[in-house]
Design goal:
heterodimer; A: MetI-like fold; 2 domains; two-stranded antiparallel ribbon; about 0% strand; flat; B: alpha/beta; Rossmann fold; six-stranded mixed β-sheet; about 25% strand; PstC_N (chain A); transmembrane (chain A); MetI-like (chain A); cell inner membrane (chain A); phosphate transport (chain A)
């Protein structure tokens, strides 16, 4: 039975169990107020026990079965026919393709089940027979591959049979166990609540485990990279010059020029976003009337909803040319500082615009959290509104605002599309903000786009870059959250 | 002590600080204060009492135009401070509030040092010519707030780190530092324990030598202890206004009597 049908079957069993459990619990007492829990809990308990363990087993089985069969079938391929693990993988995917082809052929009646089990390449042109039913194979089927495919089919069939049996047994066992329990004095409500708690914990752990998985995958690849390339060079070298073909000799993979570009662009972005965002927040929270606020705040937050690739286009097509027409050769200022549209300033200003709603929205919340009593106290002493904002509200909100700016900074550091399009691709350490530079994220993209050989340091360096970036932004986030939380405690 | 107070009162009683005539306050469509006429005397403690929601805090807040910060609040009628209408368009509410200070129900020290909390008002209004004068004002105000001895060694520590009673005395000292003529207090002891309350009440008694003090309170004992004049508010009306002794021993209006004996409110 296919997993989908099996799932539907245990679902039906669970629904039936709900009705039966509920009825049975009601029938076990003369007055349903004497039940320990409301009748629905008895039903839910039966449904839960019939469904959850069986569904879990099904899920595990569906994932594990192909892995186990793959491992056992691959022994049938003689070791002489492949050289390394990669070649074996290719053969195994042939095996699976043939096995699926035989399934299709049997399903369409082109082969009998018996024939599919026993045909031999010596007597039958398997490729042609499978071609008739619409399964195209790249080459003639090898004798060993066909044998392996037949074994694969046989074991998959056995596995599926066992799976069906095991899942149904577990489902029925849960079903009858819970039905037996469905009597008036059973604490069904507590059991169901525990079930819900388990569900919630599972959801939380999936999120945490995924993060852990990402970190570990970065970590292992980074270790692999440092085996091929000295860590000291990576962290201290002032040059970034990867050589992909190998013709140019060894690559120079120093992270410092990339970090410099990243921080330079982020600082420009924060210099744009912090004052504008903060002033906007002060206006919105302290001065704007309710009506203005009601439409201005959502409008500002629309900026946050624009995909960053669109900002990238804006940088490339509007901000860059605009800056060149002012600072470039023959520009308005008559200076020749800027060679092309792609520069630190281009990316920084655009990124700053992107961060404005981030800073303003967070700061606005924080300024609003400053108690009205503070403002009243200041007004009561004869302070004007701007004195109150400057001397009482902002100092009170400062830790939170710093936190907001740090969160914006970690977004700026991790930003990719704007720098790919706006900042250029040259890794250099220069102070001139009108020169093209590049960032860690942009280089991760360029190292991994196209064909990359994951055994070479030039590709693996992306993971080392990634984990460095991850550590930097994680540190900023932790610092920001710490500051924000410390501030929140003050007024609660 | 009592005789002494009475004697001084006779001398100063003629000074009327606030005169209000037919004052109405509206919150949107709600008519919160109706036809209030009252004369508040200088160098006297005046208590506003009444059940919750009777409008006593609202009326207090209209005396220094704090209601201006609430967009839907509207004040009609005349409120005269030393004969001048404080709702006249020529009057700057900011300057008015420097003359009519306010202390709030919950202590609200600014997130600054004790020193900066007190120096806030004098700095804004330029009351000190130099650092030494500012130091003097801070010390003098803290002494008037009966807090100097407790905090003189830690003036640079945050004001939020003080205990509740100390914070409230800090707020009173802060209000005193701007040299106001009137001090409005909106239930200044409701967040304090009995000991801190006693300290604040003692302070109020001293403050009336220099200021006119108006205090809103829920505690009738407090009104009886600290005030010379009492006004009883009920449902937005000023029901009765007179000497505290008379209000508590021989009220004219039956509603006042019911409230004082605990039958309404």
């Amino acid at each position: 039975m296919s997993p989908l049908w099996l799932l539907i079957l245990i679902l039906v069993l669970a629904i039936a169990g709900f009705a039966i459990g509920r009825t049975r619990a009601m029938a076990s007492v003369d007055d349903h107020r004497k039940l320990h829990s409301r009748p629905n809990y008895y039903g839910t308990n039966v449904a839960m026990l019939a469904f959850a363990p069986a569904a879990l087993l099904l899920a595990v089985w569906v994932v594990a079965q192909p892995i186990v069969i793959n491992a056992s079938v691959s022994h049938l391929i003689p070791e002489t026919s492949y050289e390394d693990a990669g070649a074996l993988n290719l053969i195994m995917s042939d095996v699976k393709r043939v096995a699926e082809g035989l399934d299709v052929a049997v399903a369409q009646g082109a082969l009998s089940a018996e024939e599919a089990r026993s045909i031999r390449t010596e007597f039958t042109d398997v490729r042609a027979r499978l071609g008739e039913v619409g399964v195209a194979l790249g080459a003639n089927v090898d004798r060993d591959v066909l044998r392996a495919a037949q074994a694969y089919r046989a074991r998959a069939a056995t596995g599926t049979w066992f799976m069906t049996a095991a899942v149904l047994i577990v489902a029925l066992a849960g079903f009858f166990f819970a039905i037996r329990e469905a009597r008036g004095d059973f604490r069904a409500r507590n059991r169901v609540e525990n079930g819900i708690l388990t569900l919630l914990i599972t959801a939380a752990s999936i999120a945490i485990l995924t993060t852990l998985g990402i970190v570990l995958s970065l970590l292992f690849n980074t270790i692999e990279f440092f085996r091929l390339y000295p860590a000291l060079d990576f962290f201290t070298r002032l040059e970034w010059a990867p050589s992909f073909s190998g013709r140019g000799g060894a690559s120079a993979l120093g992270i410092l020029p990339l970090l410099w570009g990243t921080f330079y662009i982020s600082i420009v972005a924060l210099l744009v976003a912090t004052p504008i965002g903060l002033f906007a927040a002060i206006y919105l929270s302290e001065y704007a009337s309710k009506r203005v606020r009601a439409f201005a705040k959502p409008l500002l937050e629309v900026l946050a909803g624009i995909p960053t690739i669109v900002y990238g286009l804006f940088a490339l097509l509007t901000v860059g040319p605009l800056l060149v027409s002012v600072f470039g050769n023959g520009g308005l200022l008559g200076v020749d500082w800027m060679g092309g549209g792609r520069a630190v300033m281009t990316a920084g200003i655009t990124m700053g615009v992107m961060l404005i709603p981030f800073v303003s929205s967070l700061s606005d919340d924080i300024i609003n959290a400053v108690p009205q009593a503070m403002r009243d106290g200041s007004y009561g002493l004869g302070a004007t509104q701007s004195e109150t904002v400057r001397q009482v509200v902002l100092p009170a909100a400062l830790p939170g605002i710093v936190g907001a700016v740090l969160l914006a900074a970690s977004r700026a550091i991790g930003e990719t599309m704007i720098v790919v399009l706006g900042a250029g691709a040259a890794a250099r350490m220069s102070l001139n903000p009108f020169e093209a530079m590049t960032t860690v994220t942009a280089k991760i993209v360029s190292q991994l786009t196209g064909d990359s050989d994951f055994a070479s340091p030039e590709a693996l360096v992306a993971f080392a870059l990634g984990i460095t970036l991850f550590v930097v932004t994680l540190g900023l986030n932790v610092l920001a959250l710490y500051i924000v939380r410390k501030y929140r405690e003050q007024y609660e | 002590m009592k005789d002494n107070m009475e004697g001084r009162k006779l001398v100063d009683q003629m000074d009327v600080k606030f005169q209000t005539r037919d004052v109405q306050v509206y919150y949107g469509d709600t008519h919160a204060i109706k036809d209030v006429n009252v004369d508040i005397l200088d160098k006297t403690v005046t208590a506003f009492i009444g059940p919750s929601g009777c409008g006593k805090s609202t009326f207090l807040r209209s005396l220094n135009r704090m209601n201006d910060t609430i967009p839907i609040a509207r004040v009609e009628g005349k409120i005269l401070l030393d004969g001048e209408d404080i709702y006249d368009p020529k009057v700057d509410p900011v300057q008015l509030r420097a003359k009519v200070g306010m202390v709030f129900q919950k202590p609200n020290p600014f997130p600054k040092s004790i020193y900066d909390n007190i120096a806030y008002g004098p700095r804004i209004h330029g009351l000190a010519r130099n650092k030494a004068e500012l130091d003097d004002i801070v010390e003098h105000s803290l002494r008037r707030g009966a807090l100097w001895d407790e905090v003189k060694d830690r003036l640079q520590e945050p004001g939020t780190g003080l205990s509740g009673g100390q914070q409230q005395r800090l707020c009173i000292a802060r209000a005193v530092a701007t040299e106001p003529e009137v001090l409005l207090m909106d239930e200044p002891c409701s967040a304090l324990d009995p000991i801190a309350t006693a300290q604040v009440e003692e302070l109020i008694d001293e403050l009336k030598q220099n200021f006119s003090v108006v205090i809103v309170t829920h505690s009738m004992q407090q009104a009886a202890r600290v005030s010379q004049k009492t006004a009883f508010f009920h449902l937005g009306n000023l029901v009765e206004y007179g000497d505290t002794d008379q209000i508590f021993t021989n009220p004219v209006d039956p509603r006042t009597e019911s409230y004082i004996t605990g039958r309404i409110g």
